[in-house]
Amino acid sequence: IPLPPEYARIFSFHNYKATQKYVLEKARDIGLFNPVVASGRLEHESKMSVLHFGIKKHKSYQFPIKGKESLVFHVGFRQFAARPIFSVDSINSNQHKMEKFLHEGRFAIASVYAPISFPPSPLIALKMGNGEVGYPAVAASGSLKSIDPEKIILKKIVLTGVSKLKATVRYMFHDPRDVSHFKPVEIWTKKGVRGNIKESVGTHGTMKCTFNHSVQQHDTVCMSLFKRVCPKWPEHRFPILLDARVT
């Protein structure tokens, strides 16, 4: 599956932890950690990449937070617009299952296109209000965990077909080559019957299948697949400045 065109605009570290250690040691050597009034950026922090935050919905926020919904991220002293996708934090795997919403009471991973920062950076996610006033509300909080464009986030999709006869399925595929490609994948029906693809029939994607129980003629045959998803590039980098109202 080709990567989205936004990946041509981002930066990828060969080893971001080693780079973070080098950048912080370099900043310490030249005295950037002495108290100052102005704030600055470290090396690489002007570049864009894919950042992954550990995030939890704030208990005071009562509205649902959907994936790719526009939020305002405050990371350290920086503020930017983001449209995160949420996923389960799989510690022992580089493949993470996408979640449609940020669920209340548990941590998730929020992946966004954003300017590079080095962990651990605190996060406060704001949701702009609706109406004429438009006051922002604290929607979630967390911290930066990693910078990794190679992390794979998978979205579950379900292909469906119609059981024409007891073991013949059509309309799931329209090409016999697709039937051959997905032959190893298990199929199931909405009535709870499971089975496997046996062979392709004809030239229009019809296939013969075997099931562990009898299948009703009008039952729907399904196949669960996963596809890689990526964050949504924000329409504006600084929505608060664009939406500011002078009183």
From TrEMBL:
Cited InterPro entries: Bms1/Tsr1, BMS1_TSR1_C
Note the superkingdom of the native organism.
Answer: Eukaryota
The record's Pfam families line, in alphabetical order, gives: RIBIOP_C
Q: Name one GO molecular function term.
A: GTPase activity
Which Gene Ontology biological process is one annotated for this entry?
Answer: maturation of SSU-rRNA from tricistronic rRNA transcript (SSU-rRNA, 5.8S rRNA, LSU-rRNA)
What do the Gene Ontology cellular component annotations say? preribosome, small subunit precursor
Residue ranges occupied by any Ribosome biogenesis protein BMS1/TSR1 C-terminal domain in the UniProt entry: 2-229
Protein name, entry field: Ribosome biogenesis protein BMS1/TSR1 C-terminal domain-containing protein
Species of provenance: Papaver somniferum
